[in-house]
Amino acid sequence: MRFTRFGCIALGVTGLLLFGYLFHRGVYVGSITMLNTASGLVVYEKYCHYFSLSGLHDVRVNAGLTADDAASVYCPPLEN
């Protein structure tokens, strides 16, 4: 299948726009569950890591009373 010159340019511009949009929003790269005892209570917190054009961002999603509660919380694929 051959693309015309206009088709190649349109496909390239579309790809660049999609790449820019994804990295502007932040792409999910992983998460970590941490124990927090600062308030005197044992609370587990989940941090989702997102990579964007301005660097790595950590977003606290939810706190749980057990490690299983915090681990079961869903991290969205794009940072809100």
Please state how the strands of the largest beta sheet are arranged side by side: 1-2-3
Q: Gap between N and C termini, in Å?
A: 39 Å
Number of domains: 1
Helical element count? 2
| Sheet with the most strands, sense and barrel status | 3 strands, antiparallel
- Beta fraction: 35-45%
- Rg computed from alpha carbons, rounded to a whole number of angstroms: 19 Å
Number of strands: 3
Residue-averaged pLDDT: 84
| Structural class by secondary-structure content | alpha+beta
Describe this structure in words.
It is a single chain. This protein is of the alpha+beta class. The protein has one domain. It has two helices and three strands; from the N terminus they run αβββα. The protein has a three-stranded antiparallel β-sheet with strand order 1-2-3. Strand 2 and strand 3 form a beta hairpin. The chain is rod-shaped, with a radius of gyration of 19 Å. The mean pLDDT is 84.
Task: Give the secondary structure arrangement, pairings included.
Layout: H1 5-25, E1 27-36, E2 43-52, E3 55-64, H2 67-71
Antiparallel strand pairs: 1-2, 2-3
Summarize the structure.
With 80 residues, the protein is of the alpha+beta class.
Key phrases:
80 residues, 32% helix, three-stranded antiparallel beta sheet, 2 helices, single chain
